[in-house]
């Protein structure tokens, strides 16, 4: 299997304001579309890759989301409720009610002519996209995959979150929902290397275990396996819990949990933030010859029972 | 040429194999796929035909390269270290991480009725299940027809969504059709669901009233159906949902096969499902994509697609796992490929380049060439643009063989089942491999004069040569394309 490097990353959160870049394209997307598109194009640019190139068969995009194009669905549903004839509907709005709008738009803009997938899962979706992308690159199905996670938040979704937060009880008190887009560019060692990349993909796991104690046990069993395979120089993995821990999934990590809800974008957001931060530092500070490896594990847990985790060998 | 070279270079890196010209020749000869040309100094830098032969040879060697064939591999590549994994390990490590994926169960729910046999008999008959819609009012729309499932006799929870009932039905059949019920469940079992808008009903209901409660709202998540199936069948391995519009069903099979190939699961229940509602019907009608009568895939007089609903699920299994438990192997999922048009969000690339990339990727992963393909289950929506695109893509990949390889477009019979389409068409492909019969394309009377495809029309066809490899194609809004290569169980 080939090495897979995290070359560059970007993230976009609510309140940044939509930039004027690709204004025409952004207008035809819903909030989810815009969040994912902007994060994806920025990560691509941060890596110095050229956009607008002809479609390339060895470059692809994989998107993860919990709610996907829910805002476009809301809009089409509202139009349909008021329509007396089909001409009252907006074809462009219905066309945006497919969850693969982000992957499609990024493919057009960046010439990603190969793999195109969209995972619609719970809070694990973003890390699932990263895992699938890394596997595709490692197996030789692609040389470059843009892994993206996005959640758009409109008024209806905010209302829905209020209802969901109330049902989750005290553990969710004060947790705000934030619109988020995050993207990480994965490349094989043929194009990237440890010298130029902040992190390397090591392993990923995805499983469904509603029992929180068993889920935690399976997660740490996986972490132990990653550490064992990392070799003598590896230090114990640093674990980042990327989602609010509504059910005491990881004891001892509660104080580190984020108190912000990003749904399916949570895991990739944490990774993108760290990779982008490291990438922003001067290239000569990236030490290619560190004496020991640093394993970082990122985990997301959905209250329905799904767990996704990714282990990286990092230089940050 | 450049595209192929890049693909093959990627394959070489993936394999971790450096191959000298002499060993390439040995490999090709051993695999029996032809001898390369005289200029064999740079394996991946020269003629495409030679590259293709070499790549196929390598893949076949890897695919058959289990312990009893290691000697053969050493003979082909040498035992002196030339063939080593990218991690610096022995090449056996690389071989062992690529288990083969087989199909050991199938389930279908279509407008033809419950079960795979109802689906197959309906397809073979050449009949269409497309009817005027009576379940909801179509007075506001131009189109009036669909292939809907009218009778729902399942004992579901009150208010259970239609797509959930379809999925449960097809999943139960896939898991229970065999004489020996497969040991499904636990940490080595996964669920991969493909859908476009599962959960849309509860969501739009909540949006309309804001008062249906959080439980109903949670069922409005697209991913809820997969978790519902996981809870029902005790799956504790990977569980997820893929949603790439009309290619979702095929993509779910690709995802499930990937989990098995990477060793994350031994058994995966994979498939697709969708139900038709006024929401979906109105949208396609607004896009003017619907036929005013019934879909006629690849027909010279086609005028649009007809929506359908249903579910298709396949039980995917790691081949050795299936053999150990004595399962009947129906077929092998040999390759999956995904490709993007990168052209337009709703209009397909007229030349079908995204679909070509998906098919080529699937064939390469399967270690097959276009000349191996004996049947095509086409996406064939019946729209002017899609079918023209698909004709161009298949003509490009199959070349002159396109005029002889039988093609079926099942959407003329069961409508366009959206997220279920790719899975139901994979089931049809498996049935063609097993029964060596090709159903006719309902609604198709005559292709345009210069059509490059051999669309089976009128009556069922007994193929002129045994069908060993079937190709199933899917295309979708967003420019997403997917292709599956399925092999008969008897193939090597």
Question: Would you give an account of this structure?
Answer:
Chain A is of the alpha/beta class and 316 residues long. Chain A contains 9 helices and 11 strands. In chain A, the strands form 2 sheets. A 9-stranded mixed β-sheet of chain A has the order 3-2-4-6-1-7-11-10-8, sandwiched between helices. In chain A, strands 5-9 form a two-stranded parallel sheet. Chain A is globular. The two termini of chain A are 24 Å apart. Chain B has 492 residues and is α/β, with parallel strands linked by helices. Chain B contains 17 helices and 15 strands. Chain B has helices at residues 2-15, 21-31, 48-63, 70-77, 91-96, 116-125, 162-176, 200-209, 214-218, 224-233, 248-261, 278-286, 319-324, 353-366, 384-398, 411-414, 421-435, and strands spanning 101-110, 113-114, 131-132, 145-147, 189-194, 239-242, 267-274, 307-308, 310-318, 331-340, 373-377, 406-408, 454-455, 469-475, 480-488. In chain B, the strands form 2 sheets. In chain B, strands 1, 2, 5, 6, 7, 9, 10, 11, 12, 13, 14 and 15 form a 12-stranded mixed β-sheet that branches. A 3-stranded mixed β-sheet of chain B has the order 3-4-8. In chain B, a hairpin with a 2-residue loop joins strand 1 (101-110) and strand 2 (113-114). In chain B, helix 2 (21-31) crosses helix 4 (70-77) and helix 11 (248-261) packs across helix 17 (421-435). Chain B is globular and about 60 Å long. Residues 1-20, 27-57 and 59-97 of chain B have low confidence and may be disordered. At the A-B interface, helix 3, helix 4, helix 5, strand 3 and helix 6 of A face helix 1, helix 8, helix 9, helix 10 and strand 6 of B.
């Amino acid at each position: 299997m080939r090495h897979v490097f995290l070359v560059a990353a970007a993230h976009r959160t609510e309140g940044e304001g939509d930039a004027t870049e690709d204004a025409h394209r952004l207008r035809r997307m819903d909030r989810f579309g815009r969040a994912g598109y902007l994060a994806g194009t920025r990560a691509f640019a941060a890596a110095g890759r050229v956009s607008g190139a002809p479609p390339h068969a060895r470059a692809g995009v994989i998107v993860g989301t919990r709610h996907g194009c829910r805002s476009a669905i809301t809009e089409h549903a509202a139009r349909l409720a008021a329509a007396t004839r089909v001409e009252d509907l907006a074809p462009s709005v219905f066309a945006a009610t497919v969850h693969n709008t982000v992957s499609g738009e990024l493919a057009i803009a960046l010439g990603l002519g190969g793999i195109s997938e969209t995972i619609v899962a719970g809070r694990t979706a973003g890390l699932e996209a990263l895992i699938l992308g890394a596997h595709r690159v490692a197996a030789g199905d692609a040389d470059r995959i843009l892994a993206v996670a996005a959640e758009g938040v409109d008024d209806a979704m905010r209302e829905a979150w209020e209802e969901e937060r109330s049902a989750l009880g005290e553990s969710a008190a004060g947790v705000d929902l934030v619109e988020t887009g995050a993207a990480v560019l994965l490349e094989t060692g043929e194009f990237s290397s440890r010298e130029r990349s902040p992190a390397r993909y090591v392993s990923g796991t995805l499983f469904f275990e509603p029992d929180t104690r068993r889920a935690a046990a399976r997660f740490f069993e996986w972490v132990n396996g990653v550490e064992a395979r990392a070799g003598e120089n590896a230090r114990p993995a640093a674990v980042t819990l990327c989602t609010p821990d509504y059910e005491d999934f990881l004891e001892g990590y509660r104080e580190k949990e984020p108190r912000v809800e990003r749904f399916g974008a949570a895991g990739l957001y944490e990774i993108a933030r760290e990779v982008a931060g490291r990438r922003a530092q001067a290239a000569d500070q990236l030490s290619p010859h560190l004496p020991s490896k640093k394993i970082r594990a990122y985990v997301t847990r959905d209250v329905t029972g799904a767990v996704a985790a990714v282990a990286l060998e990092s230089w940050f | 040429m450049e595209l192929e070279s890049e693909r093959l270079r990627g394959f070489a890196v993936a394999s971790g194999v450096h191959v000298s010209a002499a060993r390439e020749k040995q490999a090709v000869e051993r695999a029996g796929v032809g001898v390369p040309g005289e200029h064999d100094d740079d394996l991946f830098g020269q003629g495409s035909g030679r590259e293709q032969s070499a790549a196929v040879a390598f893949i076949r060697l890897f695919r058959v390269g289990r312990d009893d064939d290691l000697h053969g591999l050493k003979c082909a590549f040498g035992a002196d270290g030339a063939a080593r994994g990218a991690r610096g390990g022995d090449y056996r490590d690389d071989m062992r991480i690529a288990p083969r994926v087989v199909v050991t169960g199938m389930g279908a729910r279509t407008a033809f009725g419950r079960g795979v046999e109802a689906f197959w008999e309906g397809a073979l008959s050449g009949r269409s299940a497309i009817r005027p819609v009576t379940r909801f009012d179509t007075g506001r729309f131009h189109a009036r027809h669909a292939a809907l499932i009218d009778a729902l006799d399942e004992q579901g929870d009150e208010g259970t969504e239609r797509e959930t009932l379809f999925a449960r039905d097809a999943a139960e059949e896939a898991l229970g059709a065999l004489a020996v019920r497969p040991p499904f469940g636990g940490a080595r079992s996964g669920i991969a669901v493909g859908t476009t808008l599962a959960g849309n009903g509860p969501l739009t209901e909540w949006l309309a009233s804001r008062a249906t409660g959080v439980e109903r709202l949670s069922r409005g998540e697209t991913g809820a159906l997969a978790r519902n199936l996981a809870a029902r069948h005790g799956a504790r391995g990977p569980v997820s949902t893929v949603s790439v519009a009309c290619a979702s069903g095929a993509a779910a099979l690709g995802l499930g096969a990937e989990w098995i190939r990477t060793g994350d699961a031994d058994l995966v229940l994979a498939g697709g499902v969708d139900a038709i509602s006024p929401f979906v019907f109105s949208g396609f009608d607004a896009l003017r994509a619907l036929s005013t009568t019934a879909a006629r895939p690849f027909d010279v007089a086609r005028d649009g697609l007809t929506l359908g609903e249903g579910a298709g699920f396949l039980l995917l299994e790691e081949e050795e796992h299936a053999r150990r438990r004595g399962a009947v192997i129906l077929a092998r999922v040999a390759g999956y490929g995904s490709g993007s048009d990168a052209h337009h969000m709703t209009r397909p690339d007229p030349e079908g380049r995204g679909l070509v990339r998906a098919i080529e990727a699937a064939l390469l992963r399967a270690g097959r060439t276009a000349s191996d393909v004996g049947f095509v289950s086409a996406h064939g929506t019946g729209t002017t643009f899609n079918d023209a695109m698909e004709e161009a893509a298949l003509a490009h990949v199959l070349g002159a063989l396109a005029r002889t390889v039988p093609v079926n477009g099942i959407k003329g019979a069961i409508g366009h089942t959206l997220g279920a389409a790719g899975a139901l068409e994979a089931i049809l492909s498996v049935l063609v491999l097993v029964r060596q019969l090709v159903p006719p394309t309902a609604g198709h009377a005559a292709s345009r004069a210069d059509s490059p495809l051999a669309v089976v029309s009128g009556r069922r066809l007994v193929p002129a040569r045994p069908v060993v490899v079937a190709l199933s194609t899917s295309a979708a809004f967003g420019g997403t394309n997917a292709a599956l290569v399925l092999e008969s169980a008897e193939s090597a």
